[in-house]
Amino acid sequence: MNLTVVRLTVRGLLGRRRGVLLLVVPLLLLLIAAVAGGSHGDKHELAVRLLGTLGLGTLVPILCLVVGTGVIATEIDDGSIVYLLAKPLPRWQIVTSKLAVAVLTCWLFAALPVLLAGLIVYGGGGGLALGYFTGTLVASAVYSALFLLLGTVTRNAVVVGLAYALVWESLIGNFVSGARTLSVQQWGLSVGRAVAAPGEITAHLALGAAVPLLLVVALASVLGAAHRLAGLTLAGEE
Amino acid sequence: MAVITIDKVSRWFGNVVAVNDVSMSIGPGVTGLLGPNGAGKSTLIHLMSGFLAPSAGTVTLDGAPIWRNQQVYRQIGLVPERESMYDYLTGWEFVLANAELHRLADPAAAARRALELVEMTYAQERRTGTYSKGMKQRVKMASALVHDPAVLLLDEPFNGMDPRQRLQLMELLRRFGAEGRTVLFSSHILEEVEQLARHIEVVVAGRHAASGDFRRIRRLMTNRPHRYLVRSSDDRRLAAALIADASTAGIELDWTERALRVQAIDFEGFTTLLPRVAQQAGIRLLTVSPADESLESVFSYLVSS
Ligand SMILES: Nc1ncnc2c1ncn2[C@@H]1O[C@H](COP(=O)(O)OP(=O)(O)O)[C@@H](O)[C@H]1O
Ligand SMILES: [Mg+2]
After folding, report:
1. Residue B255 is part of which domain span?
2. In degrees to the nearest 10, what's the CA dihedral of A118, A122, A128, A130?
3. Does B232 reside within a domain?
4. How far is A149 from chain B (nearest CA, A)?
5. B60 and B175: one domain?
């Protein structure tokens, strides 16, 4: 970790218009929770839809995509990454510093609102809110690492990331069970299920498969991103 | 002594050859990298600063490869051509961050010294996003100097500067050169390079075209024999008439091409001589075309601009 890289990254991430964009996800979750929490339907069903489908399934990956690519892809695009790279700093340090900022941002703007929304609509019962919170913590860390790597690999990181999160995980994952094995969302749900009381959270993957996959993907993403940075080339002025 | 050595280096992008089998070595003092747009100057500077891998050949700093070697940045300061530089930071914050990233013992003192060197302390509390081109250039310069590097690489540093800023930067670079640092800057303007560089490397269309001090480069450009291919109604008689004039260095009758290959010493003299001689002798000129046109037009471009 390098505190200067952390500081530069935080200011770049929160200082621009993106800072406002980050507030949309928590506001949306809490607003829906407040409105729907007063209704008389099936509370469990509501909580699963709000925290699982909308939260962990849709808003969390989108926010992590904005943040994960935002901590590095913007700098690569405009060329200012040169000032970090033209230094005798190990590349993995740049990556871990940026990743730490991304993860904490996602926890603050995605995981914490999931917990609060869960408490609003369902209370602390059955450890459901806590389960989804834990699942979101884990999933958003891995999403951040994955999307950070994506930002170092392609200039179309946002499009590719959206395709992965929404098309692969949500759409294909609903129909093809094999796709669920390779889904950060499912890995998060698997961890959440283990935290909550039995029957509260449904997941399609055993914990024994989910945890190694989470760790491997996170680690591989950091190493991959560090490798990409070490070999980053500057494009000529077009 | 810090020396960058480029040894038989080529770099291609797909089927575009940006740098073609170039060898040169850049040592202490100020060196100008001169060439028209698209010649491969930025590509060479990226190769020398570790931001591009050579497709063939090697680029080294005192014998150590530069590509994928972060340790070289202890000795190299780079002033890139692009302007983007964390424009939400103030000049002070930007230069200080660069000093910290180098893990200097006293980053604040180093940042202050660098900003003083480029005379930007007066605007250091302003966000760099509000700076003019010349101010950005100087703060970029400060960020590259903050760790007191032995090598300074600058890509088109005078672009967008007003005459006063230009003089100031020249003065600064001259001083660094005199201190024994290795300073390399690129430019497409001969006058700029002449004023500042002790040594000039000329690149044209990816090739290393010439090398030497400015007198030598000037001489090469204005006095080098210009070659023309000439076809006329009577090549033999035209040849005889041309060889009588001092601006003609040599003539060859090319039988396969059915043309004259003429070497002229003095470009301007020859272009007025040829039509006059032809008219006097009653010979019709059919074709007059410069041979090795690319180099020809480039040199005349560099000389006239
Ligand atoms: N990333 C790239 N992809 C494709 N072509 C490139 C790239 N970078 C440079 N070139 C080409 O290489 C040549 C040299 O470019 P450059 O080094 O930028 O020239 P200069 O800096 O002298 O103007 C040009 O023809 C340019 O179009
Ligand atoms: Mg250039």
Report:
1. 225-291
2. 40
3. yes
4. 19
5. yes
